[in-house]
Design brief:
With 621 residues, the protein is α/β, with parallel strands linked by helices. The chain is 26% helix and 23% strand. Strand 24 and strand 25 form a beta hairpin.
Length: 621
């Protein structure tokens, strides 16, 4: 059964709520008039089809003739998480009939937080910036969670109404307007959804039904019940939610938050059942819809197809890639970065996606992960920074505040020239300097105090002596606002142009478009902190060398062929570099000097290569 309030037109609305152990449930209309309508139970679900109900009608469910609570399947909470739910008419005039989506393997993702991306902090305010993102080369935006959370300031992971669009962002219709505008600009929309916990304030689901189990515990408390008694209905609740976003809102992909905290020991994992349902919807709609998992497990089973014993999720994040790059650039070895910090680690991430693929982790003090080299690089999302990795620092510093300008360009090259799907965090492309700190606006003083203390405890693992900013303070939120106008001048404009150039190279170069693992040859020199790699296609080759050292490094490289032309050099003065001595044409075994924290890219067009050199290259491969 479809849970929630479904407006059928002509003043008729169907209400359905799950409550298998409740003795009675009544629909309590509170606005524009006041009525109490009894509901009938069938198979654990309570239903009533009511007349004289127009969109905008506000209601509670009255449980056991006593307490009144909002609808767990609410489509909109116009006031807050404690107040009545509202009936919504989902009718909308779409202009994306010709939209067929963006293939996952070609996506260049851009993660953004609605509340801090613009001064207005709303869905419509994003629309004027889409053209600039498209000009940069972005073809997919990823929205941090928009399900209703307490107050108006939150990262979104404290949502308690998974079907309700955050009121302070603009509500359901304005989200649809944003998605429609994105599709008209050729941009896909990925939505971050949270299926591993509910937020602590306004979560009344346990008053209705056994949504939780005490058999497992998560960082947020009791686990959601995906495999115990009554778990079928819990699973259906979240499957309906996924189909709701993909179908009703034309969302192109869902990013599943921290699936390592989804506990399910049943024969068919929840994620596998979710993937089956999304596949069916894809077939019905005639376009591919995607599921992307954030996971700390380093487990390729998540993205393997069902016929190979996998869950059938389309892609997953590789945090190992980020940790390898970040620790190499910054020298940070605190917390989980203790397991990283060498060129060897980044090379391993480049080749195999996971650094820890059943290797011993000193931070975890156990073996971790599994080999993922049998999966396509196009099934992994990589980044130099994202909301978690920035927010996991005490002061929420972006990379632009931690490393020099040359290192920012180097980080961009590592990510955008990799064989994986790149994700940028809002403002990264022009070196945004405002922090991204964890912020909330809970109404319960005791809860606010608990969050403050929790943040302090969290940073003990990073041996921090500094106090984290107050997450409840309005000033904390305001300091996280982006300074979009900076992209128009100075070093910020140069960095923006540099990102644009990298994306153009990635999107048009044949060797970089061919992303199979066997088309990558990579090596490193740990002492020199130098990484170099070749990428191949039938008629094209790319060579890239990256210097992570604090000083200039001289090296030589054997090349096959004589047509190696430099197409990008981060040290050139037009990119505000120190200046480059690298020749425009590379010769085999000549000495080349690469300035500190820089990289260079050479291309060999094999259409112009003499036959003897081509045959030699093929033998070498």
């Amino acid at each position: 059964m479809k849970i929630g309030a479904h407006y059928l037109g002509d003043g008729v609305c169907e209400f359905t709520v799950w409550g298998p152990h409740l003795e009675s449930v009544a629909l309590e209309i509170v606005s524009p008039d006041q009525r109490l309508l009894p509901m009938r139970q069938q198979g654990g679900y309570w239903q009533v089809t009511a007349k004289d109900i127009e969109p905008g009608t506000c209601y509670f469910y009255q449980l056991n003739n006593s307490e009144s609570r909002p609808d767990p399947g609410s489509n909109f909470q116009p006031l807050d998480v404690h107040s009545p739910s509202q009936v919504i008419n989902h009718s909308f005039v779409w202009n994306d009939n010709n939209w067929s989506g963006i293939p996952l393997e070609t996506m260049i993702m851009y993660e953004l937080h609605v509340g801090t991306f613009t001064p207005q902090g709303t869905f419509p305010a994003i629309i004027p910036r889409l053209a600039d993102l498209r000009d940069l080369g972005i073809n997919a935006i990823e929205l941090m969670p928009v399900a209703q959370f307490p107050g108006s300031r939150n990262w979104g992971y404290d949502g308690v109404y998974p079907f309700a669009v955050q009121n302070s962002y603009g509500g359901p219709n304005q989200l649809k307007q944003l998605v429609d505008a994105c599709h008209q600009q050729g941009i896909a929309v990925i939505l971050d959804v949270v299926y591993n916990h509910f937020g602590p304030e306004g979560n009344y689901t346990s008053r209705f039904a056994p949504y939780f189990t005490e058999s497992y515990h998560t960082p947020w408390g009791s686990a959601i019940n995906f495999d115990h008694a009554h778990s079928y209905d819990v699973r259906q609740f979240f499957i309906q939610n996924a189909l709701y976003w993909l179908g009703e809102f034309h969302i192109d992909a869902l990013r599943l938050d921290a699936i390592d905290a989804i506990y399910d020991l049943g024969a068919k994992h929840f994620l596998a059942e979710l993937a089956e349902n999304v596949t069916t919807l894809s077939q019905q709609q005639g376009r591919k819809l995607y599921l992307i998992a954030e996971s700390d497990l380093n487990d390729p089973r998540i993205i393997r197809p069902p016929e190979l014993g996998g869950y059938g999720i389309d892609a997953q994040w590789s945090d190992d890639f980020h940790h390898s790059l970040y620790s190499l650039l910054t020298g940070d070895r605190t917390g989980y970065y203790a397991d990283f910090g060498k060129c060897e680690h980044l090379v391993k991430a480049y080749k195999d996606s996971f650094v820890y693929d059943w290797k011993y982790s000193h931070y975890r003090q156990r073996y971790h992960g599994n080999y993922a080299g049998d999966r396509s690089p196009s099934q992994f999302i990589v980044a130099s920074q994202n909301h978690d990795q920035i927010g996991n620092r005490v002061l929420g510093e972006r990379l632009s505040q931690l490393v020099d300008f040359e290192s920012l360009k180097l980080a961009a090259g590592v990510v955008l020239l990799s064989p994986y799907i790149p994700l940028l965090f809002m403002g990264e492309e022009y070196g945004e300097e405002s922090p991204f700190i964890y912020f909330i606006s809970h109404s319960d003083p005791d809860l606010v105090k608990a969050v403050r203390e929790g943040r302090k405890q969290e940073f003990l693992a990073f041996s921090s002596q500094r106090e984290p900013p107050d997450p409840e303070s309005l000033n904390t939120f305001n300091t996280c606002q982006m300074n979009w106008e900076k992209r128009q001048s100075g070093k910020h404009q140069v960095l923006l142009s540099f990102y644009k150039k990298l994306i153009q190279i990635r999107s048009h170069n044949p060797a970089l478009l061919k992303r199979e693992r066997e088309n990558l040859q990579i090596g490193f020199n740990e002492e020199k902190k130098l990484i170099s790699w070749f990428r191949y296609s039938e008629n094209n080759q790319i060579f890239c060398v990256m210097n992570f050292n604090n000083c200039d490094i001289t090296f030589s490289q054997e090349f096959t062929g004589n047509n190696w032309l430099k197409i990008l050099d981060s040290a050139e003065k037009k990119w505000l570099g120190s200046g480059s001595n690298l020749s425009q044409k590379a010769q085999s075994n000549q000495e080349l000097t690469l300035p500190k924290h820089s990289f260079a890219v050479y291309e060999n067009n094999l259409d112009n290569e003499p036959q003897r050199h081509r045959e030699r290259r093929e033998r070498k491969k």
